[in-house]
Amino acid sequence: MSLTKYTLDRIEDGYAVFLKYPEEEEQLIILQSAINKPVQVGDRVLIEEIDDFYQIEILKEETEQKKAEIQSLMDRLRKKNQ
């Protein structure tokens, strides 16, 4: 498996569910114990499978940028509904 970009959508029952970026239609479900570092919901990552373990690189700048965009949208929605 080559390096592929994903976004962590959720963690359920010990599994991390990643959505392939940018379409976010294809899922990659990984047992949390097979992940090499802690990840949080919303993190944008690069994933490479190596010997049944997943090497994950968190893309901090992209993650922070996306979180800022989402926060801005939420703020505008709140103002609109007041």
From TrEMBL:
InterPro entries: DUF3006 (IPR021377). It comes from the Bacteria. It holds the Pfam family DUF3006. This is DUF3006 domain-containing protein. It comes from Lysinibacillus xylanilyticus. The lineage of its organism: Bacteria, Bacillati, Bacillota, Bacilli, Bacillales.
